[in-house]
């Protein structure tokens, strides 16, 4: 019986494509304190450069909306107000009663449909 298993190759299974797949996977390097300090100093340099350049150029940009945009926003506000008022008119008890009424009117999926005469 042991001679049946003599020709079986051992080791892990190989994926198609050979060793190309394993070469693509690289481990991420752990960040050290030196790297973090370098990033902090780089960020400080960028901030100081931005503050110096912003003092030189200070553009003022006024955003104005078109007439259509203002009208659209006004209509949206009105619709939202109407929706809130409509929801506030009915109490919780009334909403539950309406839901129960709708559920009673619905056909249930496990009912046996009446087919044929009688």
Automatic annotation (TrEMBL):
<dbReference type="InterPro" id="IPR013865">
    <property type="entry name" value="FAM32A"/>
</dbReference>
<protein>
    <recommendedName>
        <fullName>DUF1754-domain-containing protein</fullName>
    </recommendedName>
</protein>
<feature type="compositionally biased region" description="Basic residues">
    <location>
        <begin position="24"/>
        <end position="33"/>
    </location>
</feature>
<keyword id="KW-0175">Coiled coil</keyword>
<dbReference type="Pfam" id="PF08555">
    <property type="entry name" value="FAM32A"/>
</dbReference>
<feature type="region of interest" description="Disordered">
    <location>
        <begin position="1"/>
        <end position="38"/>
    </location>
</feature>
<dbReference type="GO" id="GO:0005730">
    <property type="term" value="C:nucleolus"/>
</dbReference>
<feature type="coiled-coil region">
    <location>
        <begin position="63"/>
        <end position="109"/>
    </location>
</feature>
């Amino acid at each position: 019986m042991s001679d049946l298993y003599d020709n079986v190759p051992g080791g892990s299974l190989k994926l198609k494509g050979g060793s190309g797949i394993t070469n693509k996977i690289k481990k991420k390097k752990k960040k050290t304190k030196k790297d973090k300090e370098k990033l902090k100093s780089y960020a400080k340099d960028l901030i100081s450069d931005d503050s110096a350049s912003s003092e030189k150029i200070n553009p003022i940009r006024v955003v104005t909306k078109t007439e259509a945009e203002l009208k659209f926003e006004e209509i949206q506000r009105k619709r939202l107000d109407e929706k809130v008022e409509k929801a506030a008119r009915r109490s919780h008890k009334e909403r539950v009663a309406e839901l129960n009424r709708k559920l009673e009117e619905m056909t249930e999926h496990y009912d046996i449909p009446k087919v044929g005469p009688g």
